[in-house]
Amino acid sequence: MAQQFLLWTGAAVLLASSALSQQMSFHEETFHGRHAYVASNGSIRVSALRGGGHFAEIRFVEGDRARTVNPMRVPHYQTIDPYEFDEARDAPLYSGGTVGRLLSGYMGQLLCLPEFGGLPEAAIVEWKLTGSTVTDQAVTVRYEALLPRTQFRVGRVLTIPAGLSVMYVEEWAENLAVFGRPMHWVEHATFGPPFAEPGKNFLDAPKARWAGSRRGAGLTEAPVEWPRGADANGSLLDVRSLQPLPHSGRYNAYLLEAGRPYHYFTMYHSEYPVLVGYVFPARDNPWLLDWEENQSYPQKPWDGKVVARGIEFGTTPFDEGLRQSLERGRWLGTPVFRWINGQQRLTTRYLIFLADIPRGFPGVADLQLKDKAIVVQPRESRPVLTVPIGDFSFEN
Hints:
This protein has helices at residues 2-23, 87-94, 97-105, 322-328; strands at 25-31, 34-40, 44-49, 55-60, 110-112, 128-134, 138-147, 152-161, 166-175, 181-183, 186-191, 201-204, 208-212, 228-230, 236-238, 248-256, 262-269, 274-281, 287-294, 307-314, 330-331, 334-335, 338-340, 345-356, 364-370, 373-378, 385-388. It has 396 residues and is mostly beta strands. A hairpin with a 5-residue loop joins strand 14 (228-230) and strand 15. It starts with a helix and ends in an 8-residue tail after the last strand. 45% of the residues are buried.
């Protein structure tokens, strides 16, 4: 009997290991007509685009359509790999110049480096696969890009641990020039329909001071704290929900509270059982900004049809370009750019997670990292949500 039990146990372990191995996967495929690097651990699936490196898809694998919703923005128009943008051929469809090149490939999360609002070259070049590893413990993807116009090299290592609904992101930027210089380093995570729906999409973040609207206009004399911001007339309002007024937009920047080792933001839709969140090191990302678009931009290729919510975190609060940031220097006593020495490589780490939430979820009051897990405290008296994250560290 003991021998038979050991045989059964060994067979069960082998079957479980085999099933896990089959769930862990990496391959290249087409995502909405774009070349994508696709990784999955059987719990979540991530698609990163070769064109611009964008995260186009981060979603649960199993469940109904509501649970497997992709929260990231996928445009209503056909995009292309932006490094293949041809001015004569593509400008009539996407607009011309740097803006047209960016909009031609803009999908989901993009990296704004070395400028935010100027030339975000990292978001428009080709990101080439440099390696992938699939084991029973994790799926790892490495891809990087050369920025020839601005003389940078950037790269990412994406790690999806087995059995968890998280992705570790290690990201680096290397200055290829021999001299030091300033730069922007901003993650632009953009969410779209059906997840981003006016009046039903909600954002939560830790304590933060309002830093103003686009390009610093409208700063109030008295500090205003999240989740309050201001409209175009300077009137204060709660900005947790996506702007419900049609043909309107909103842009509120925040200085995150100093003293925390890490910051976060979370987002959910009141009719979907999914919470998506980002946790990132405070030292690299003092600023958070909430950009909302509700069918207000009439130019090509948006044509007044786009609904989106972009949450940007990083080294600057305004998409004003590097020169204006240098002239500004600091805002609310905090630098609005980052310095990189000649031939230096800088590295940062953050994580993205998904969590199941119950119907009627009231939002997030706080988020903490404890005992290899994310502990989410709801805004009302509800049980905490615990999301295991394994051996993640912000240290390089």
